[in-house]
Amino acid sequence: IQLTQSPSSLSASVGDRVSITCRASQGIGSYLAWYQQKPGKAPKLLIYTASTLESGVPSRFSGSGSGTDFTLTISSLQPEDFATYYCQQLYSYPLTFGQGTKLQIK
Amino acid sequence: EVQLVESGGGLVQPGGSLRLSCAASGFTFSDHYMDWVRQAPGKGLEWVGRIRNKANTYTTEYAASVKGRFTISRDDSKNLMYLQMNSLKIEDTAVYFCARVPGRGNDLDYWGQGTLVTVSS
Question: CB of B55 within 8 Å of any CB in chain A?
């Protein structure tokens, strides 16, 4: 199953609302997770089963979607949110990641 | 506190072998499936494979790119997971992360900091 994220990169300002989309090549129900990765660090789980917020993750992050189209939304960007974001399908093996979306400061 | 620490990375020639280890602490290791994920320099994340727990007979899954060359195993008595990498190719150069699969699903809730494998002559 291929995952296509859009955009590949995004420039935004602190306080902006941003959305990143992830499209699957076939239906995956709600079997999708979102991760955040900062340079030189391990990925961090943000969202699982498409819309469930991982414990400790700020509520400005939210996920939605099912089937083939999914969205990660950050309601009000904070300085620490500038990072690369990846979606991952958890529906069938091999598990696959999207190519990533780099969120940069405008 | 859950901790995952990878080790064993380094420089290896094409065609060579290397074994990575992932040391787990802070949780009941034997209960959990565990994954390996890699990231080539400047590139995105690539899922490598998974090993299930004893209750699921330690079965494994692999990405097509490593199947037949890489083997995942575990030693629950030592809280260790391994990635045996044979017939290494230049394109296997990457940081290799181990990650824990929580009981609720297939997502990865804790990750190690990674170990760098460089395949070069």
Answer: no
